[in-house]
Specification:
Blueprint lengths: L4 H6 L13 E2 L10 H13 L9 H21 L6 E4 L2 H15 L5 E5 L8 H4 L7 E5 L10 H4 L7 E7 L11 H10 L3 E5 L11 H4 L3 E5 L9 E5 L1 H6 L23 H6 L1 H13 L8 H28 L4 E3 L11 E6 L3 H9 L3 E2 L1 E3 L4 H6 L8 E5 L6 H14 L1
Parallel strand pairs: 1-11, 3-4, 3-5, 5-6, 6-7
Antiparallel strand pairs: 2-8, 7-8, 9-10, 10-13, 12-13
Helix pairs in contact: 2-11, 3-11, 3-12, 11-12, 12-15
């Protein structure tokens, strides 16, 4: 069954917004539109539940229930236990807090492996641990393709390595890395595995439980939700790491790595992302008695199939041009629909020219300066990044290709 684009777009108020008419949105890697279900829950919380949650009076009780519902349903979709999922103000902040916790458990001489394919959020906090006397080893991409080869990880691993940090996919290279394979390599060497899922999650929620990752992080504002960071951390690791939150929260796993406490309204609104997945599942003939994990997997496949069909014509169109360089694979099946182009002129200049043709996109280094440098691209010049998700239509892809013809 194919994804029903008309139904999908009806779930997003942005597509009915007069000020956005006549424009096609191609900067989804920086943040997606928000679905109606999230907006409705956020509005309800601010108007009916804006009290301190978990008290015995009705408004407070309902506020706490909605926060718990978001955690329970998202955890089930991801294939992890409810208490293994926590919220924070952003993925960058969640990663930073996690790095501080690891630093407290590591000993002099211990090492962490990071990549130069990562967005800065999942590499910067770990690299800073070098200032505290820990070794940071870099797993490097191929400078021509941007490919992160699992075989190149193995020589970096020994009994000193405590953690391997890598992206599910890069926000400029976009190749989907074999997470399960990489996690196994790390575990076989006695190391934990931390996966940055920020650039993959907008294209379908991953089955984190099946992947075996010890930590999986992504951002709700890129998965049609509010500005929250979401982190799944397996209970064994979470219990081993020291509490980073209030002392009285130390016995609750999902509170141990949120020092500032949760944003009540935004956490509750995250249940709207599960509502959205359920709506897509039902509309596309899903069985009524399927569990959350099954529904998420079905919707994941619907999203990916739709994106792959739209992505290949765009990849073909840009691959034919000698005046630019496509970063990452030229086949849609192995990558996310995030297309970074290195141009003779700067990425921001090209984005500004595309805006004149109704194409909303961006240019720059996108906090992926290490990856760009490794591939011979000047971060100061940056790239033009064209990114979409499952609510994009064929007509919008055609408009983008036509605009590129005029601009480039």
């Amino acid at each position: 069954m194919e994804l029903n684009s008309a139904f999908v777009r009806d779930q997003f108020p942005a597509f009915a917004e007069p000020s956005l008419q006549g424009q096609a949105f191609f900067e989804n890697a920086g943040g997606s539109f928000t679905c109606r279900q999230v907006i409705d829950r956020l509005t309800r919380f601010y108007t009916q539940r804006k009290v301190q949650p978990y008290a015995p009076y009705e408004a407070s009780r309902l506020a706490g229930e909605e926060m718990d519902e978001a955690r329970r349903r998202l955890a089930a979709m991801l294939g992890v236990k409810t208490h293994e999922l926590s919220f924070g103000p952003s993925t960058t902040q969640n990663t930073y807090v996690l790095a501080q916790a690891f630093a407290q458990k590591m000993r002099p001489g211990d090492a962490i492996v990071v990549t130069n394919q990562d967005h800065e959020a999942n590499t910067g906090p770990w690299r800073r641990l070098a200032d505290r006397g820990f070794e940071v080893r870099e797993w490097k991409i191929d400078p021509d393709s941007g490919h992160l080869d699992p075989e190149d990880l193995k020589p970096l691993l020994d009994d000193k390595v405590r953690l391997v940090c890598f992206p599910h996919c890069s926000n400029v290279v976009a190749e989907i890395n074999p997470v399960t394979e990489i996690v196994k390599i790390a575990h076989d060497a006695g190391a934990y595995a931390c996966v940055d899922g920020v650039s993959y999650a907008p294209h379908g929620f991953a089955d984190v439980g099946a992947m075996g990752a010890d930590v999986y992080l992504f951002s709700a504002y890129k998965t049609y939700g509010p500005h929250q960071g979401i982190m799944a951390i397996r209970e064994g690791l979470g219990a081993w790491l020291p509490n980073q939150g209030h002392v009285f929260n130390g016995d609750t796993l999902y509170k141990r790595f949120t020092p500032a406490g949760p944003d009540h309204a935004q956490v509750a609104a995250c249940a709207g992302m599960a509502d959205y997945v359920d709506a897509l599942y039902r509309h596309h003939g899903g069985e009524a008695d399927a569990d959350d994990r099954t529904r998420a997997a079905k919707v994941h496949d619907l999203m990916r199939d739709h994106e792959i069909k739209l992505l290949q014509p765009l990849l073909d169109a840009v691959s034919e041009r000698n005046s630019l360089r496509l970063l990452g694979p030229s086949r849609a099946e192995g990558r996310a629909p995030t297309v970074a182009l290195a141009l003779n002129s700067g990425g921001e200049e090209a984005a500004a020219r595309l805006a004149e043709h109704g194409i909303m996109t961006g240019g720059g280094d996108f906090y992926a300066g290490r990856a760009l440098q490794a591939m011979g691209v000047d971060p100061a010049q940056g790239v033009l990044r064209l990114s979409f998700t499952h609510y994009t239509t064929k007509d919008e892809i055609d408009s983008l290709i036509n605009a590129l013809d005029r601009v480039l």
